[in-house]
Write a structure and sequence with these properties.
479 residues; 10-stranded mixed sheet; 5-stranded mixed sheet; 34% strand
């Protein structure tokens, strides 16, 4: 959907109050430029210094390289940032407004806030109105749209994903309404559920009688026109992204999208993520549990009891997610030598030492899988250590399968990608066996002393076996 095509606007007349069309366009150009540069207004780094904008449309261009994050500042776009810029915007009347960073040269985050009380002045007084990271139809840019009320003030923040910096281009466009539109107060959060769960997605808003509503699933309309979407028995075909459209007097805007996945271990806060640096915030952390190991119910099976009882997380199960809206990251490494397409990442910490078998059986598209680990903190792709990859393990264009030794004290990241940029519903099935333990590093032979001529090239190798990753540190002794 074209971001500017959502409003229905009347055609512009050929003249404005008797002025010829050439002069009219000149006037319109002056008005536009005035909205952008009026009184030298700019973004501000510190929240308390932000400037107020009242123009219905405008654009700001400014680098966020030297911007900072203040103590207590919220996570814009719901993600970790590092270089935020602020403005205040006052709605000229009732209507719908859109802010976007479409032409910015880096990965942006965008949020709009309001104070919860008339005397509010601190971050603690803010209520988030709308947020975005990578918006549908964009790559790394962000777009938010929301209903506004006449004279009310909105605090707008632009940031860079995990400290990204560059030239920010923030544009906004406002369309008026004759009466107050419905105002969204809260949207459901991303989460995982189990197969067969009842799922209810509720949008809380004011003035609902003034609007009409329509739910969307993975970009397609659903025949649901209430503010509450109920799925009585959640199945793999229901996995994906949900959002609700609000329509009022010919204008419309959408709620913040909600992603629903399946985790058969019942870990509601475990999510595969479309960005590697988001994955540590929603990990699958294995638990030893209490009592005997009880098998999880993977791959769409239904347990006899209808529940998972004493399931111990992280031993065996499935994470099921939809990659339709995955973003192609040009900086991402190739998995199994196949150019990056639309990948999702699952952060995994096993409950004990063993060998985990991973596969993508059940996925609706041709998948690639690679498993990585890292030492210390994960700051980006440069920290990844590959310990195995798989592609077409069961024949051409089929699912991937891989066995990887794992240890409880180490963290792992599984990347599931699509061949030639393909996407769809992915199954990442995991089965941890404690019968096959990782092999410790072992020196299989004693290195022998060698004599070489001065200035010659010397190659030394250590006959070592063991489970990946292996690290080596050389020690030089001079005699």
């Amino acid at each position: 959907m074209n971001a500017f095509a959502r409003f229905t606007k009347p055609a512009q007349p050929a003249t404005i109050r008797g002025v010829g069309w050439q002069a009219a366009w000149c006037c319109l150009l002056v008005i536009w430029l005035g909205a952008v540069t009026a009184q030298g207004q700019t973004f501000r780094d510190f929240f308390a210094d932000r400037q107020t904008f009242t123009a219905s449309s405008g654009r700001l261009d400014q680098s966020n390289t030297n911007a900072t994050i203040e103590v207590g500042e919220p996570k814009h776009g719901g993600k970790t940032g590092g270089h935020s810029l602020w403005i205040s915007w006052v709605a000229p009347t009732n209507g719908v407004v859109e802010f976007k960073t479409e032409a910015s040269g880096f990965d942006t985050l965008l949020s709009a806030y309001q104070f919860t009380n008339a005397g509010g002045s601190t971050f603690a007084d803010l209520r988030e109105v709308a947020r975005a990271d990578d918006s549908e139809g964009f790559e790394e840019e962000s777009e938010i749209e929301f209903g506004v009320l006449a004279g009310q003030r909105y605090e707008i923040a632009v940031d860079g994903f995990f400290g990204a910096t560059g030239e920010v281009e923030l544009k906004w466009d406002f369309d008026p309404l004759p009466s107050p539109p419905p105002i969204i107060l809260s949207s459901p959060t991303d989460r995982s559920v189990k197969i067969g769960d009842l799922v209810s997605l509720v949008i809380t808003l004011t003035n609902s009688a003034a609007g009409e509503f329509k739910w969307y699933f993975n970009g397609n309309e659903l025949n649901v026109t209430t503010t509450n979407l109920v799925i009585p028995s959640f199945q793999t075909t229901n996995v994906g992204r949900y959002k609700m459209r609000v329509s009022a007097d010919g204008l419309q805007y959408f709620s913040v999208p909600t992603e629903i996945q399946i985790n058969t271990d019942g870990a509601s806060n475990t999510l595969a993520q479309s960005k590697i640096l988001d994955s540590p915030s929603t990990p699958l952390i294995g638990s030893d549990g209490v009592g005997p190991l009880v098998r999880a119910v993977p791959r769409g099976e239904v347990s006899a009891s209808g529940g998972d009882g004493g399931v111990v997380r992280g031993y065996n199960g499935s994470q099921i997610f939809n990659t339709t809206f995955a973003v192609l990251d040009p900086a991402e490494p190739t998995h199994c030598g196949v150019p990056a397409g639309k990948s999702y990442w699952l952060f995994y910490q096993p409950p004990t030492n063993g060998t985990v078998t991973l596969d993508t059986v059940g996925s609706t598209y041709d998948t690639i899988m690679e498993v990585y680990t890292f030492n210390g903190a994960l700051n980006g792709y440069q920290d990844l250590i590959s310990i195995g990859c798989a592609n077409d393990s069961f024949g051409s264009n089929g699912p991937a399968r891989l066995e990887v030794p794992v240890v409880k004290s180490r963290q792992y990241i599984v990347a599931v990608d699509g061949v030639n940029g393909s996407s769809g519903t992915a199954w990442l099935n995991y089965n941890l066996s404690t019968a096959v333990l990782p092999t410790p590093p072992t020196l299989t032979a004693t290195p022998q002393p060698i004599t070489v001529a001065a200035g010659s090239t010397v190659t030394l190798s250590a006959p070592v076996i063991g489970s990946a990753p292996l690290g080596f540190h050389g020690v030089r002794t001079v005699r």
